[in-house]
Specification:
This protein is of the alpha/beta class. It has 3 domains: 142 residues, inorganic pyrophosphatase (n-terminal core); 145 residues, no CATH class; 114 residues, Diaminopimelate Epimerase, Chain A, domain 1 (Roll). The protein has 16 helices and 14 strands. The chain has a 6-stranded mixed beta sheet with strand order 9-10-11-12-14-13. A 5-stranded parallel beta sheet has the order 2-1-3-4-5. Helix 9 packs across helix 10. The two termini are 32 Å apart.
């Protein structure tokens, strides 16, 4: 992969000599951090460029792009190669890590681990390595790649290439309870904990205070300690209490792991918190604030914090709706049709939280649906990252009824027409039952 990055970086520098660049990036944390890394790099090169952040890369978006500019897709487009081939775009560069199921057009230069060694690396990680090849003195951008890595839940099995990104970013790594932010008072962290989701605690102040009282954790001068301030005995008590709340948690390792601290605005922050904050800004329609946060523009910080607070409330409301609503359940799968009750930009986060919540058995397929005007956003996750290939499942259904599919083996999504809601659910159920027989 390193060889491919080197070759395409050289080609990119050659092509952009006398051309303007149009960047199109995904709106999640990985896409936003990819865009921020590229913005900083192109500014250093003194290049003229524009940035477009999108929820989905559809045919209309591709057709509207300028045919004269260099087009750079970040954290998307691996599933849109046929559309790009027919778009009239001349010089296209793609830096992405999603599965490729279409033929790569001749005018497309693509960096994607799916083409080489299938390394687990984020889009922002690839963008950082690409930009590091262009400007070697760019290591301070590595922390943005770490935020993208965490946003895509790739921090649990860090290989050599990702470890080097952590080193470049001067990330401080500590072992502790996987609740975030680890730098804030534990009572507030527990109250807004959504990943992991703690039944009876998340969104329940009384439940939080009861848990802390039973655990023997008392406030000092009216303030509780943060996770990274807990001593070994206190940490052990809290871990035990949380494991009792989550009966399907088999091992302590499932809720204990690495905490990554990064320096942002000259202050040490929990990388998971900043990653979630970037995601919140973008999913609430303010991607420009998310990018400004990554670029450490001071005025963006307060706005980002306010959007994140609002987003956390929406998540808690969404989880409450899921716990109370009737679901379509079968052998090894659950379908949650939220309709207008959960925002389409949040439904993927809800699906991810549920897949990490231990409410469902390992291998269970979770499919969550939400309305987006005349369309439906569908997000699918596999509990424990095992079982069915959800991207294949969605692709097989969508190939029959129409729509757009993207994602990975255990985390994928699609967009379908709203009037095909019943047909989609019917085909989905049929496919899931067949898939169960296969496995």
């Amino acid at each position: 992969m390193e060889k491919r990055i080197k070759l395409i970086a050289k080609e990119f520098l050659e092509k952009i000599k006398d051309k303007e660049i149009q960047i199109v990036s995904h709106f999640d944390t990985d896409g936003i951090t990819s865009a921020a890394i590229m913005i900083k790099t192109l500014k250093r090169l003194d290049k003229t460029f524009s940035v477009k952040i999108v929820k989905n890369l559809d045919e209309q978006t591709i057709q509207r792009l300028s045919k004269e500019k260099i087009t750079l897709f970040l954290d998307l487009a691996s599933n849109s190669l046929d559309c790009i081939a027919n778009s009239g775009l001349k010089n296209v560069f793609i830096i992405d890590h999603h599965e490729i199921i279409q033929k790569i057009p001749e005018n497309v230069y693509i960096i994607n681990p799916e083409l080489t060694d299938k390394q687990k690396i984020s889009g922002s990680g690839l963008t950082y390595l690409f930009c590091k090849e262009i400007i070697p003195e760019t290591k301070e951008l590595a922390k943005l790649a770490v935020l993208g890595m965490i946003g895509d839940c790739l921090e649990k099995n860090i290989d050599k290439i990702n470890n080097q990104i952590l080193i470049d970013g001067e990330i401080i790594k500590k072992r502790g309870l996987l609740l975030y932010p680890s730098t804030r008072p534990i009572n507030r962290v527990l109250e807004y904990s959504s990943n992991p989701y703690l039944p009876g605690i998340t969104g329940n102040v009384k439940g939080v205070l009861n848990l802390l009282r039973e655990t023997g954790l008392a406030p000092k001068n009216g303030k509780y300690k943060s996770i990274i301030e807990l001593n070994e005995k206190e940490m052990s008590k809290l871990v035990t209490a949380i494991m009792l709340l989550k009966p399907k948690t088999k091992e302590k390792e499932e809720i204990i792991g690495d905490i990554f601290l990064i320096k942002l605005f000259n202050k040490l922050e929990d990388a998971r918190e900043i990653s979630a904050m970037i995601n919140a800004c973008s999913r609430l329609g303010e991607s420009e604030i998310a990018i400004q946060l990554c670029l450490e523009i001071p005025k963006a910080k307060k706005r980002a914090e306010a959007l994140h607070a609002k987003y956390k409330q929406l998540i808690i409301s969404g989880l409450k709706f899921v716990s109370e609503t009737e679901k379509i359940q079968g052998n090894g799968y659950v379908i949650i049709n939220a309709k207008n009750e959960i925002k389409d930009t949040i439904i993927g986060t809800i699906a991810s939280i549920l897949s990490n919540s231990f409410l469902y058995e390992k291998g269970t397929t979770i499919i969550a649906m939400a309305y987006d005007q005349n369309k439906i956003k569908v997000s699918s996750r596999s509990v424990g990252k095992s079982g069915r290939n959800v991207r294949v499942v969605l692709n097989e259904v969508v190939s029959k009824i129409g729509g757009e599919v993207g994602g990975h083996e255990f985390a994928a999504g699609c967009v379908i027409e709203k009037h095909k809601e019943e047909e989609f659910i019917k085909e989905l159920k049929k496919n899931l039952e067949i898939e169960l027989v296969k496995i």
